[in-house]
Amino acid sequence: MRFRDREVVVTGAGRGIGQAIVERFLAEGARVAAIDLEPPAGRVDSRHLSWHAFDITDEGAVATFFAGRNRCDVLVNNAGIPGEGALAALTTEYWNRVFAVNVTAQMLMAQAAMPLMPAGSSIVNLSSVAAHLGFAERAAYCASKAAVLGLTRALAIELAGTVRVNCLCPGTVDTPWIARLVGEGDDRDERLAAMAGRQPMDRLGMPSEIAAAVAFLASHDASFITGAVIMADGGMAIGAR
């Protein structure tokens, strides 16, 4: 019970990795405030869990949320959107929206949480293996996730000695987004295997594995770690087999 009676805030909590993160912190004794645009229909039922539906790119909504809280021991900035499309076809509006969700919202959440975070607190920002590798038709996504690395490092320096700030970069994980990318059809299994095969471990990551890494970074077990960028990518960033 590493997080007994700790106050944890998780964005993008409604599905996939975010849902697994919520479940992990609840299992370790935390009181969790889960944020998403729409709480999922099949959400976890726990007296230690509260759901909050608002747009984290809305500065006023973020401020209102934290104004109703007394403390924040852990902030997990998990929310993000894919940012798909060839660069030649991207509009400025779409580019800005990807950065608003993937980067600016992390800044807004951290900025509002900081006054409520006692010494020993932790922020974990979710980036992606795409911050380290280039992917065709993912320019907005790759660029925004790379920006999260810079935000994490700068904030870690700014808050050193009080709040630890680290970044986790997942690889390809078995989530609803990946299921949508793979799609349906007779060759679905082959396409899924090809996607998994990009990672030297030759499988997709599981949301629970990402949640375990987040919990480690947020815990006292990582008390001398700040400003770190941790890969949870099945070896994808080091190259193909």
TrEMBL record:
It comes from the Bacteria. One of its GO terms (molecular function) is oxidoreductase activity. SUPFAM superfamilies: NAD(P)-binding Rossmann-fold domains. Keywords: Oxidoreductase. Residues 6-166 form the Ketoreductase domain. It holds the Pfam family adh_short_C2. Transmembrane segments: none annotated. Belongs to the short-chain dehydrogenases/reductases (SDR) family. This is SDR family oxidoreductase. It comes from Bosea sp. NBC_00436. The lineage of its organism: Bacteria, Pseudomonadati, Pseudomonadota, Alphaproteobacteria, Hyphomicrobiales.
